[in-house]
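Convert to structure. Protein one:
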Amino acid sequence: MNFVVILVAAVSCVAAQGGNRYRPVPNPSPGQHIGILRQQSDINPDGSYQWSYETENGISAQEQGQLKNVPNSPEPAIEAQGGFQYTAPDGTPIQLSYVANENGFQPQGAHLPVAPPIPEAIARALDWIAAHPEPQQPQRPGGRF
């Protein structure tokens, strides 16, 4: 019996030590407040910017961006780098970083799924196909196929 009491007390202490973890609000009621611990935002005349914030339930995010000249484009584009982090309801720490530019949104994070490797036989077949393209056949006038 003493063992069970000690075990429950130890588990309670560990649970209370959660610290800066995500604490989901099950059914938030109107007007419920999740405080902002830190917030910063700077926009510069040259088009560069940065922002960041941290909330009391352990969520934080940041981003910085600047104008970038893109080859073959008359207009500059914005390139942004940033990330966010929080703890999922199941206790999994989620941390994602990203770059967004002319090549699209490119996220990176340990929690993101990864495609399996291409089987060796398929990779060899793709290499062979790339090395041996089919010859172009002339189009017949009026032909549909």
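Protein two, convert as well:
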Amino acid sequence: MADATSPSITLQDIEPMTFKAMLVFMYTDELPGDQELGDSPTEIMKHLLAAADRYALDRLKLMCARKLWDNISVGTFASTLACAETYNCPELKSKCIDFFAVEKNLKKIIFTEGFMWLVQKFPSLAAKLKERIEA
């Protein structure tokens, strides 16, 4: 009951920029522009995807997934796929796996530190990637 009389509320596990972006979405049904997201809009999108999953904002979750997919690269592949797996985003996960299966991407991705981290932290994803390549 102390929160009801307090002039402020402290939220745990969410950065102020992420919370602000979530509020913008809740009031406007739109994502903030990249210029409003600071120096690393892709990282904010990953945090926003996590918040959308946590607070069951399915439309926001889908919009974040699309934005992450639009910005996927060899360098962001591992963290984006880990995010999709962690926050139950099957569309993004599927698109990441398809991105990996393209031979020119595969040859570059497997030599990144992010890929080594992904294989160690998510062995089930490593199996899915292998299965997709062998198909």
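The CA atoms of residues 8 and 47 lie 23 Å apart. Residues 41-54 form the longest helix (14 residues).
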